[in-house]
C-alpha cells in the first residue's frame, strides 16, 4: 500500500519540535502516534461510536502488532498526510494499513500496519468483531 491513491482517508499533521530527535528528524516512536491518531479520526469519520460499542457490546480492542517501515526522513515543521485503510478483517482481528506522505504529494515516507484484536471487556479473551463495525469498514477495505 505504497501509493497515495490506495487510500480514501487521510489525516494531516505538522511535525512539532517535540517530535524530532537530535538529528532533526521525527523520532521513530512518533510514527505510531501518528498512526494511532489517524485510526481514531478515521473511526470518527465513519460515524462509528467506539465508546458506545464498548459499553453496549462489552468488547474492546487491544493492539497486538505494529510494524513501521521507514522509507525517508521526515523533518521538523513538515506537513504530512497519513493515509489509512482497513486491509484485513478477520474473525476477531482487524488490520489497519497506513502510509505517510508529504502533504498533497506522492512521495512515500513510511508505511505501517497496526493489528487489533477484539476482546471481551475485562477478560482479555478474543471475541468476534462486532457486525456493526464490519459493516462500516467493509466498503473501504483494500487488501495489503
Features:
5 strands, Thiol Ester Dehydrase, Chain A, globular, 5-stranded antiparallel sheet, 144 residues, alpha+beta
Outline:
22% of the residues lie in helices and 36% in strands.
Given helix and strand content, the structural type is alpha+beta
The helix content, as a percent range, equals 10-25%
Tell me the name of the CATH homologous superfamily.
Hotdog Thioesterase
Number of helices: 3
Q: Output the radius of gyration.
A: 16 Å
Q: What is the architecture at the second tier of CATH?
A: Roll
Order of helices and strands: EHHEEEEH
Largest sheet: 5 strands, antiparallel
Question: Do you know the CATH topology?
Answer: Thiol Ester Dehydrase, Chain A
End-to-end distance: 6 Å
Into which percentage range does the β-strand content fall?
A: 35-45%
Average pLDDT rating:
94
CATH level 1 name:
Alpha Beta
Count of beta strands: 5
Q: Please mark out the parts with pLDDT under 50 across 5 or more consecutive residues, or reply none.
A: none
Q: How many domains would you count in the coordinates?
A: 1
The shape, in one word, is globular
Strand order of the largest sheet: 1-3-4-5-2
Amino acid at each position: 500500500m505504497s501509493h497515495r491513491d490506495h487510500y480514501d482517508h487521510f489525516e494531516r499533521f505538522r511535525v512539532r519540535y517535540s517530535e524530532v530527535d537530535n538529528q532533526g528528524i521525527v523520532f521513530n516512536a512518533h510514527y505510531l502516534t501518528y498512526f494511532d491518531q489517524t485510526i481514531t479520526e478515521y473511526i470518527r469519520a465513519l460515524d462509528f461510536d467506539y465508546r458506545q460499542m464498548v459499553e453496549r457490546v462489552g468488547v474492546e480492542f487491544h493492539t497486538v502488532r505494529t510494524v513501521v517501515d521507514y522509507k525517508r526522513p521526515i523533518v521538523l515543521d513538515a506537513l504530512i498526510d497519513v493515509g489509512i485503510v482497513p486491509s484485513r478483517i478477520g474473525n476477531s482481528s482487524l488490520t489497519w494499513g497506513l502510509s505517510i506522505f508529504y502533504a498533497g504529494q506522492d512521495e512515500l515516507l513510511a508505511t505501517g500496519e497496526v493489528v487489533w484484536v477484539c476482546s471481551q471487556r475485562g477478560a482479555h479473551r478474543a471475541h468476534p468483531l462486532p457486525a456493526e463495525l464490519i459493516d462500516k469498514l467493509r466498503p473501504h477495505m483494500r487488501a495489503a
